[in-house]
Each structure stands twice: as structure tokens, then as C-alpha cells.
Amino acid sequence: MKKKIGILGGISHTSTIKYYQTIMNLYYERFGNYYYPEIIIHSLDFQYFTDLENELKLQEYEDYIVYSIHCLENAGADFIIMAANSPHSVLSNVIKRACIPILSIVDAVGVEAQKKNLKKLLLTGIKYTMQSDFYKSGMRKYGIEVITPNDAEQNLINQIIFQELVLDNMLDKSRENFLEIINRYPADGVILGCTELPLLLDNKDTRIRLLNSLNLHCEMALNYALCDSSRT
Question: E strands of 29-74, at which residues?
Fold first, then answer.
């Protein structure tokens, strides 16, 4: 019996669509049939959510996330994935207020990095994520050091995400700028710690190993939905 997947989405709609599509594609690639797991999506108000992040209204931010989790619980989800990196900054608090499991995107990345024997990773994402501690603290249990770009580079990456990628707009110049940034740092790999960043580039674009947080999270969710905990 497959578990019903609850997706906390809308942050942004572009990544939510990609989550849904990726889970379906991963299932079909593995099994070659259409017995897909059931998926329930609750889409948040992206501007309101982003305003709470930018203004660091963390209690209201947490409450809004929990509101969506309760909507998914009431709709019949068996477990939840939050289709973005940044809400995982308050995951430990949110888990305490949820009645069903929530799968961590940080753990999805950490397990993969550990498998690849990566020891030092460059974190990229929205400014809120790069300036938060949840990736650095989350990677410690995997024996992995996390570094971040400088302030000017963070501003540029943040701009690319919010002014282009969330609108499903990929520019060659932005790809070049992003590659220049990640090539400056002595790291074993790069965390694409915004679920829109994989729209900009993938491993064929660079020699540096890229950790696609969206794909890894989707794989974890599919495995959990199929009750294959050995693969999460």
C-alpha cells in the first residue's frame, strides 16, 4: 500500500510543478507503469511567505507553514515534503506541531553527499537560506563542512532566483555568472539549495559535483511512499 504524499508548495509554483513532475518521472523510470502514488498539494501565498522570511517574522513564518501542514493532514496525506529549502530552517519546531512525518531536504542532500564522500560543500540558494544555519548544522552529523558565497555573490544569486527562476526564466548570462561564483570556491561539491536552481544548470554544465536538492528530496519521498525506507 503506497503512502499518500503531501506537498507543501507554492514557494514557488515553479518548484512545486517540478516536484510533482519529478516524482512521477522517477516512478515511471523505475516501474514503467502508471500506478503512481497519490499526491496532495497545498499551495501557499508566495509573496506573503517571502515577506515573512525577509522580515524575519519567524513565529508567524512557522505558524504559516504549520497551517499548510494541517491542511495536508486533514486532506489525508500520510507524510509531507516541503517543496523548498528555506522552510527547513524551522523544521525542528514544525515537526513538533505535526501529526505525520515530514521528510528533510537537508537529510536527503546529506545522505547523498556522504555516499559520494564529499567533505566540503558550497551552499547556494536564496539569501535567507545561505544566511541561515540549518544546512551547516544539519551537515555536521554527516561530517561535512558547509561554506557560503560572499555577500555580493549572495545578492546576485538571490536576484537570479527571485527575478528569473521563479518565473521559469533561464538566462545564459545568469548561468555564466552562477558558474563563475561556484568555480571560485575550493569545495568538493555545490548544494543547489534552492529548488529552482536546477533549472539553471546541472552536472553536464560543470566539472564540480552538483547536489540537486529537489531531485534528492523527490527520490526520498518516492521511496518513503513506496515503504522502501532502505532507500531513503
Answer: 39-43
